[in-house]
Specification:
By secondary structure, the chain is of the alpha+beta class. The chain has 26 helices and 19 strands. α17 (about 435-455) packs antiparallel against α18 and α22 packs parallel to α24 (about 625-635). The longest helix has 20 residues, at about 150-170. The termini are far apart.
Length: about 700
């Protein structure tokens, strides 16, 4: 017996299709039915690779008694947060207001007449445990509260709604007027402290903080922190830690410890795109650790092998859990990635195992439930023999050598994972949907890695993905967020517009670089003007449908796609991904440099003004806003010829754009423009770089 979710395109929603719960999609019919029947809405939000979402699906959502009570007394709606980040953002705010923390699964109870939340939580067990009430008891108490405490219910909702509305307007004034330089220093200090090694808690990549910390080291701010050292250490933690898959490439979501050892094993496209860009920037900033180049190279191998659709776009994620055998009912966390000591003894010769133990954290007792997560003990280049040893482990996992597996087909659900005749281990399920925002982060990472390392495959993968989006994500002239097996769906949200415009600008810059080889397919649509023209066109649509004329900044959802939301938010907070407005404002500055259109600069100024109060009061919330401020205050354009661009573009020049001109002023190597003025034409590259360094620190 299945429910409405059986026909869902979303893998996460389909995972709930056999629950006894009478799940609805988020739609007008569901919302009106709840109102007519006077049933409070139980809104449950998660995503396919979320471990505790999977646990709750197999426990509470599969329980007959819970399902019967829930169906009779509530209207249950299931939402994939990766499809509707606008809905998730609103109700995550509510959860954080009520409990002081957030997370998924996000389970919220709403009044049907106005969709205002009155209670929220994350994971609910079937029976009371972990200090949490059993889910059935929670449901019974909340239905009783809804029926008998109407006055208190209205007061409670009023407080929550007022707080949500206040946050949406962001009516925050600076208590003291700060200069841009003071603001930049505050943002840099805050971000650098946040990514400084912490002896407690989980370890997350936190790339938006790494990005502003790295771009800010050029200012030499007075600080007790050595920003360059902190940024380098963050790179080492990522490239050497257990968060990286040292056998096959790709970065896991985070580690459950402060030592970067044992990961939560899901691999998310958005993390990998940002980490690739960060490691490439570290290298270009002069921190040329071999592990960084290896991390990028292996991650691109993984991306090409396991995460790239035949059409050229990138899949969304891979689960943390996988099956040990086809006979198992439930997958096991990390099973695809970890190694028992006895397995290593079987696969490797004694001298190979000895060298592996010298370089990696491998012991007989293991570091994760009796098994080993590979973590490097020290930086530097791995020996050829050790690389061959790791290739043996690759064969042990995949059943063939890396060179023999050009494409490793995804298991798109648990049934496929258990029934396909894999050559070795059963892989984790891959969520094969295409998300524009996440693809864009990967495209940007690949574009930057190409300009630094000049590996042609990096650019080829990036351009193919961008071309897929440009050719398939427009319906009736409107940009769309998702693609399921060739079908575009759901209007794009602010992060889709912002991140893809950034990706197009990054490709514009990357395609100014000399390309010694390229396929005919890439050559046709790989010229810099092609990407800037598309960026300009998409920016126009972004401004038309999501710009807030009254407040400044961009709403999360388009004006014609947000009628069912209780508030319209403007994203300024960075989480695992950058804030849409932070990236969007930086894009506006970059567009103004390349087009000389000052309207873009006006919008950027309005956007920064809209968020200036929150930047002053809560700098820890919005590192991408400080990156945008850096672009606004220190934007620099280098106009020069192809030869000089090819030389300069791999340098770490975080607020610089390049434009190609064929005819240089006589006796000069180019022109450096800062803001609304151009400097005297320098006669050599050394003087040009001096002008650039001065221009980049004038704010």
């Amino acid at each position: 017996m299945t429910n409405r979710l059986e026909s869902a395109k979303s893998l996460y929603l389909r995972k709930h299709s056999e629950n006894p719960i009478d799940w609805w999609y988020w739609c007008d019919e569901a919302l009106s039915t709840a109102k007519v029947q006077n049933k409070p809405i139980f809104l449950s939000i998660g995503y396919s690779s979320c471990h505790w979402c999977t646990v709750m699906e197999g426990e509470a959502f599969s329980d007959q008694a819970i399902a019967q009570y829930l169906n009779e007394n509530f209207l249950p709606i299931k939402v994939d947060r990766e499809e509707r980040p606008d809905i998730d953002s609103i109700y995550m705010q509510a959860l954080q207001m009520m409990t002081g923390s957030g997370g998924w699964p996000l389970n919220v109870f709403l009044s049907p007449e106005d969709l205002v939340p009155f209670y929220a939580g994350t994971y609910f067990p079937i029976e009371p445990r972990y200090g949490r009430a059993g889910f059935l008891q929670v449901l019974q108490a909340l239905r009783n509260y809804y029926d008998t405490e109407k006055e208190d219910l209205q007061k409670r909702k009023g407080v929550i709604l007022e707080a949500l509305l206040s946050n949406a307007v962001l009516n925050i004034e600076e208590t003291t007027e700060a200069t841009d330089k003071q603001l930049l220093q505050q943002g840099w200090n805050t971000a650098t402290k946040i990514i400084t090694p912490n002896p407690q808690g989980n370890s997350f990549p936190m790339m938006p903080y790494g990005e502003i910390a790295l771009r800010g080291i050029r200012f030499n701010f007075d600080s007790q922190l050595d920003g360059k050292e902190v940024c380098q250490q963050r790179g080492l933690d990522l490239a050497l830690g257990g968060i990286f898959d040292h056998v096959a490439g790709g970065f896991h979501r985070y580690t459950v410890d402060p030592t970067w050892t044992v990961p939560h094993f899901e691999k998310m496209l958005y993390d990998n795109g940002q980490i690739v860009e960060y490691l490439a920037n570290l290298w270009s900033a002069g921190i040329q650790e071999p592990a960084f180049a290896r991390g990028i190279s292996l991650t691109v191998d993984w991306l090409q092998r396991e995460m790239t659709a035949p059409e050229g776009y990138f899949y969304a994620s891979q689960d943390a859990d996988s099956f040990l055998t086809p006979q198992e009912n439930e997958p096991e966390e990390g099973a695809f990635y970890v190694w028992s000591y006895s397995e290593l003894e079987q696969l490797l010769a004694p001298e190979e195992l000895t060298e592996l133990q010298q370089q990696f954290t491998v012991t007989a007792n293991g570091n994760f439930e009796g098994k080993n997560v590979l973590q490097r003990r020290k930086a530097g280049k791995l020996s050829e023999t050790l690389e061959k040893t790791l290739q043996k482990l690759f064969v042990g996992r995949y059943g063939a050598e890396p060179a023999a597996i050009r494409t490793f087909p995804p298991a798109q659900n648990n049934q496929e994972a258990k029934t396909i005749n894999w050559q070795a281990r059963i892989p984790a399920v891959t969520d094969t949907k295409m998300i524009v925002a996440w693809n864009s982060l990967m495209i940007s990472g690949l574009a930057r890695a190409y300009t630094v390392f000049r590996q042609h495959i990096y650019l080829e993968l990036a351009i193919k993905a961008a071309n897929f989006i440009l050719n398939h994500q427009y319906i009736d002239g409107r940009f769309h967020r998702l693609n399921y097996q060739g079908e575009a769906t759901l209007n794009a949200q602010s992060e889709d517009y912002a991140f893809f415009i950034k990706a197009l600008l990054d490709l514009h810059q990357a395609t100014l670089v000399e390309r010694k080889e390229e396929s005919a397919e890439i050559s046709a649509n790989a010229h810099s003007h092609y990407f800037i023209e598309n960026a300009i066109a998409l920016q126009q649509e972004f401004d038309q449908y999501l710009w807030s004329v009254e407040l400044g900044g961009y709403y999360n959802a388009a004006i014609d796609s947000s009628q069912d939301l209780i508030i319209r938010e403007r994203s300024y907070q960075d989480n695992a991904t950058p804030s849409a407005n932070g990236i969007a404002i930086a894009n506006l500055v970059r567009l103004s440099l390349l087009t000389d259109n000052l309207h873009y600069l006006d919008l950027a100024e309005q956007g920064l003004k809209a968020f200036r109060g929150i930047m002053k009061q809560a700098p820890q919330a919005c590192p991408s806003m400080f990156s945008a401020l850096d672009w606004y205050r220190n934007s620099t354009l280098i106009r020069t010829n192809f030869k000089h661009i090819n030389t300069l573009i791999s340098e770490f020049l975080p607020s610089v754009m390049f434009a190609e001109i064929s005819k240089l002023p006589e006796g000069s190597v180019g022109i450096v423009c800062q803001g609304l003025k151009c400097l005297p034409a320098p006669e050599n590259l050394e003087k040009l770089l001096q002008q650039v360094q001065q221009s980049q620190t004038r704010g």
